[in-house]
Amino acid sequence: MEKFFKFKERGTDLKTEVLAGVATFMTMAYIIFVNPGILSAAGVPFAGAATATALGAALMCICMGVFTNRPLALASGMGLNAVVTFSVIGFQQANVPWQVGMAVIFVEGLVILALVLTGLREAVMDAIPIDLKRAIGVGIGLFITTIGLNEGGIIQPNSATLISLGDFTQKYVWVTLIRLLAILIFMALRIKGDILWGIVTATVAALILGVTSLPKGGVVAPLDFSTFFAPFQTVDGGTIALAKVFTPSLLLMVFAIMLTDFFDTMGTVISIGEQAGFVDENGKVPGIRSILTVDSIAASVGGLFGASSITTYIESAAGVAEGGRTGLMSIVTGVLFALSAFFAPVIAMIGGGYDVGNAVHFGQLAGAGFTVPEGSYYMYPITAGALIVVGFLMMRTVRDIPWTDLEEAFPAFLTIVGIPLTYNISYGIGLGFISYVLLKVFHGKAKQVHPLMWVVSVAFAITFVLPAIEKLIG
User: Fold this and answer.
1) What is the C-alpha separation between 230 and 222, in angstroms, rounded?
2) In the predicted model, is pLDDT for residue 249 greater than 70?
3) How confident is the model over 63-69, as a mean pLDDT?
4) How do residues 349-374 score in pLDDT, each as one tens digit?
5) Which of 142, 186, 298, 446 counts the most CB atoms within 10 A of its CB?
6) Is 354 helix (H, G, I), strand (E, B) or coil?
7) Of the spans 57-71, 131-145, 166-180, 207-221, which averages the highest pLDDT?
8) CA neighbours closer than 13 Å in the CB half-sphere of residue 102
9) What are the domain boundaries of the chain?
10) Degrees (nearest 5) of the Cα angle 365, 366, 372?
11) Can you list the pairs that 359-368 forms with residues at least 24 positions away whose Cβ atoms lie under 8 Å?
C-alpha cells in the first residue's frame, strides 16, 4: 500500500488518508439526498436515482483513486443536475422523457472524453474568452439559486410581476428557511459538513412540522436499478432514448453542458491541486490527462446510470484540509458512498418532494418507485437550501470579470442574466457568445475572435431566429 499510494513521499499516512476520506464523504454526502429530489421533479424514479447517485459516486471515486492517485472525489454535480431537470428534461416531463435527458449527459461525457484524448482541450479553452467562462459559472449559480428559492417556496410565480414573495404561512417555507439559516450558521462556525448538517437540521424541523415523516418500512431497502442504462431504454413507442439526442436543440444542450462540466473540472482540479501541493511552478497539474479522462468517463457513467453528470467535487478540499494527499482518500469516500446506497427509504424521507395540494410527502407515497400522481405540484423544502447556498458559492468568480471593459463585461452580463431569466443555460450562453462577437466586430477587432466562436455564435443565432423563419415559411 505504501508503494502504491506513496504515503511517505507525500507526507501522509494510512490513518490520515482514511480520516480525510471520511471528512470528504461527510462534506459531499448531501448529494445523496439532494440529487434524487431534484431529478425526481422531472419524472426520474426517486429510488432508482438514489441508487444511481450513490453507486455512481462510489464507482468513480474509486476509479479516481486507483488510476490517478490524487485526492479528488466525484459525485453527481450540483447545478448540472438542476440543468438536466429544468432545462433539458423540463419540469415533470414537460419537454422530453427523462431517459433522453440522461442520454444527453451520456453523449456529453463522450464528447469531453474525445477532447481530452485527442489533445483538443487547450484548443477549446483558448476559443472561449476567460470572462465568458466565468460568466457561465455565475449564471448557472443564479439559475440554481432561483430554482432553490422557488422549490423552497420563498418566491413564487406572479402573473403581474413575474415573481413575488412566497407564502410564509406555509410550513414547507419555514423548513426551507430553517435549512438555509442552519447552513449559514454551520458555515460561520466552520463546522465541516455544513450542508449535510443543514439537511439534518431541516429534516428534524420537517418531521416536527409534519412536512415529512419517518419511513414506515424500515431504513434499509434493496437497490433499485430502474434508471440504469437510461440512454438505451425505449421511449415514445419504442425509440431508443439515445437516438433522440441528435436534434439541434438537444445537441446545443450537449454543447452547453459540456462547457460547464469541462471548465468546472479544470477549475476544481487546479484549486484542489494548489491546496494539496501537486500543482507545479508553472501552474500545471502533473498527470492532468488521466484526471480529466476519469472525470470525462464519469460524466458518461452518470448519464448511463441515470444519476446526471458525475464530476470532480470542490468539496474534496475538505479531505485535503484534513491531510489527504493520495488516491486512498478518494477510495475511502467511494466505499462510504457504496454503503449508503442501501438506505433509499431515508433518502426518500429527506430528498422527496412535498405535494402542496395534497399535503403529502413524496416518500410517503405508495410503491417502491415512489410514483408521482399526475397533476401534483411539489416543493422540495429540505433540499432547496442546498441549491441556494451552492448558487452563492458559484458567484465568487464574478469579481474577476473586468466590469469597466465593455467588450468583455457586457457579453458576460448577458450570459449571467440570460441563463436564469430564460431558464435555459444554452440560451444564456448563446446571448453572451453572439454579443461578444458583435462587440468585437463593432470595435474593429474581428481578428481577435477565435474561429470556433464564430461558428458557435452563428449556430446560436440560427437557433434563435429559426422559429420566426419556420413561421414565415409556414
Assistant:
1) 19
2) yes
3) 97
4) 776 556 565 555 544 443 333 444 44
5) 298
6) strand
7) 57-71
8) 34
9) 7-247+260-366+377-398, 401-474
10) 50
11) 361/211, 361/212, 361/213, 362/37, 362/40, 362/46, 363/46, 363/212, 363/213, 363/215, 364/212, 364/213, 364/216, 368/47, 368/221, 368/224
Site of grid cell 501522509:
12
Q: Which of 38, 71, 74 is nearest to 54 (CA)?
A: 74
- Give the chain's length: 474
Please tell me what DSSP assigns to residue 170: S
- Grid cell digits, residue 304: 448511463
Q: Which residues contact 422 (CB under 8 A, 6 or more apart)?
A: 428, 431
Residue matched to cell numbers 492532468:
288
Distances (CA, A) of 215 to 211, 362, 375, 419: 13, 11, 24, 38
Q: What is the pLDDT of residues 254-292, one digit of tens each?
A: 887 887 777 678 767 877 887 888 877 766 788 888 999
- Angstrom distance (rounded) from CA 36 to CA 84: 12
Burial class from Cβ neighbours inside 10 Å (0-12, 13-18, 19+) for residue 248 reads exposed
- Cα separation, 171 vs 331, in Å, equals 40
d(CA 92, CA 397): 32
Task: Give the model's pLDDT for residue 242.
Answer: 96
Q: Which residue has the cell 466565468?
A: 134
- Residue 356 CB partners (closer than 8 Å, separation 6+): 170, 172, 377, 378, 379
For residue 324, the one-letter residue type is G
Instruction: Give me 417's grid cell.
Output: 442574466
How do residues 292-323 score in pLDDT, each as one tens digit? 999 999 999 999 999 999 999 878 887 888 88
pTM: 0.71
Alpha-carbon span 315 to 389, nearest angstrom: 13
Q: b/e for 85-118, b at 16 or more Cβ within 10 A?
A: bbbbbbbbbebbbbbbbbbbbbbbbbbbbebbee
Contact between 46 and 352 under an 8 Å Cβ cutoff? The reply is: yes
**Count of C-beta atoms within a 10 Å radius of residue 129:** 21
- Is it the case that residue 15 has pLDDT exceeding 50? yes
Return the residue matching grid coordinates 417502491: 368
Distance CA 189, CA 182 (A): 11
User: Which residue is listed with cell 475511502?
Assistant: 332
First to last CA, the chain: 68
Pair type for strands 239-240 and 360-361: unpaired
Structure confidence at residue 365 (pLDDT) = 40
